[in-house]
Amino acid sequence: MAIHKPSIPKGTRDFGQKEMARRNYIFDTIRSVFRTYGYQEIQTPAQENLSTLLGKYGEEGDKLLFRIQNSGEKADLAPEKGLRYDLTVPFARYVVQHQSEISFPFKRFQIQPVWRADRPQKGRYREFYQCDVDVIGTRSQVNELELVQMVDAVFGKLGVRVGIHINNRKVLTGFAEIAGAPDKVVDITVAIDKLDKIGIEKVKEEMAEKGLAASGIAVIEQILSLQGSFEEKLAAMKGLFQGGSASGVVSETGLKGLEELEELFGLVAVTGVSAPVEMDLSLARGLNYYTGAIFEVKALDWEIGSICGGGRYDNLTGIFGLPDLSGVGISFGADRIYDVLTGLDLYPAGLEQSTTLLFAVMGADELRYVLPIAKALREAGVSVEVYPEATKLKKQFDYADKKAIPFISINGSTEMESGTVNIKNLQSGEQKAFAVSALQDILDFLA
């Protein structure tokens, strides 16, 4: 039999002990913030019925769905399945399926992997984790405010400087209306969503290919070129939506979107947020289910694209038979956040240290002597390892060094006869002997 070199699929990664310590630091930080705002955790299956997923992400999103070949079921009877593309659509399915068991507004967070059949590249993976936080069952923009606050809190704790970009899908609908192409809002949104990647000229070409008139494209280019403060952009957009564009069309939908943005930015101003918050008229987020505010977060000191994003959706549960239930949420891209923290070297010192004390082993009798001590220390909350076999002390010291274990305990016949335990601080060189019964003194030394 031929021996194959082991490998993993493109767009996926292994995570060793060091990486997992760092990832758990990210997950624990995010969880702690979510919980302070009253969100509780749920989980959904990795696979969903394909009918649940199709048509929720736009034409381009549908192309990126991983489909699962039916196995163990009669193919003609079993529904087609796919790996989840995000956590929002499964969440909407969950809400409808479990509506009699939950209380509204329903606040949940979810930290699980998702899959996209995308072309792997820097910062873009086929399997990656999302950390989603959503509230459903209320239209209050207090929830949008809390999302902004949570973003600010999470990245503040992680030490990452970010910029928070906000737009509104109603404003994008207004783009299409005053451009004279109200039926092409999806085409316009998909094109604008690529602005950072391909530039304005390519965006204009794409809109032209979708049948948008040159006059309409000129209106959208005018909007995308607006500069200035939130108040200045707001005033300019109000003028355009009130009939001030070349088309002379009034967009009530666009004006409603501006009204919602004005309310949200007012709430942000009252509350105070450390990160800069910007009205970004080029922000589109090309998912069809967004209907109100949309968010995107970018690291200011590391080039990697969006590390967090989301928005409001009014109609998502209606697809599953529960209409008129508005929700809003954001997703933290854990894998990109990991890359940012790695690139900026922002992980806390000693994060990978899993063991506080190593008991070296001199022989069988010494092993039996230290095992009850190790048990007592573990019960007191100390992370303890007992070296599994009697071998050269140099090998045991090397093991402690490689794992960055700060304390080692070496005990022989002298300690056994006197009922003591000898502990050495490998960083300072300080060494002390303690009575086995003096547990608190040992804990204080290890602290």
The span between the termini is 54 Å
For the residues shown, what is the average pLDDT? 93
Structural class: alpha+beta
Shape: elongated
Low-confidence stretches: none
Give the beta-strand count.
Answer: 16
Strand and helix map with partners:
Elements: H1 17-36, E1 40-41, E2 47-49, H2 50-53, H3 58-63, E3 67-68, E4 81-83, H4 88-97, E5 106-115, E6 127-136, H5 142-158, E7 162-168, H6 169-178, H7 185-192, H8 195-209, H9 214-224, H10 230-241, H11 252-271, E8 277-279, E9 293-299, E10 306-313, E11 327-333, H12 334-343, E12 357-359, H13 364-379, E13 384-386, H14 393-402, E14 407-409, H15 413-418, E15 420-425, E16 431-435, H16 439-446
Parallel strand pairs: 1-5, 7-8, 12-13, 12-14
Antiparallel strand pairs: 2-4, 3-4, 5-6, 6-11, 7-9, 9-10, 10-11, 14-15, 15-16
Helix pairs in contact: 1-5, 1-12, 5-11, 6-11, 7-8, 10-11
Task: Kindly summarize this structure in a few lines.
With 447 residues, the protein is an alpha+beta fold. Helices cover 41% and strands 18% of the residues.
Provide an overview of this structure.
The structure is a single chain. With 447 residues, the protein is of the alpha+beta class. Helix content is 41%, strand content 18%. It is built from 16 helices and 16 strands. The protein has helices spanning 17-36, 50-53, 58-63, 88-97, 142-158, 169-178, 185-192, 195-209, 214-224, 230-241, 252-271, 334-343, 364-379, 393-402, 413-418, 439-446, and strands spanning 40-41, 47-49, 67-68, 81-83, 106-115, 127-136, 162-168, 277-279, 293-299, 306-313, 327-333, 357-359, 384-386, 407-409, 420-425, 431-435. The strands form three sheets. The protein has an eight-stranded mixed beta sheet. Helix 1 (17-36) packs antiparallel against helix 5, helix 7 (185-192) runs antiparallel to helix 8 and helix 10 (230-241) packs antiparallel against helix 11 (252-271). The longest helix has 20 residues, at 17-36. The radius of gyration is 28 Å and the shape is elongated. The relative contact order is 0.12. The mean pLDDT is 93.
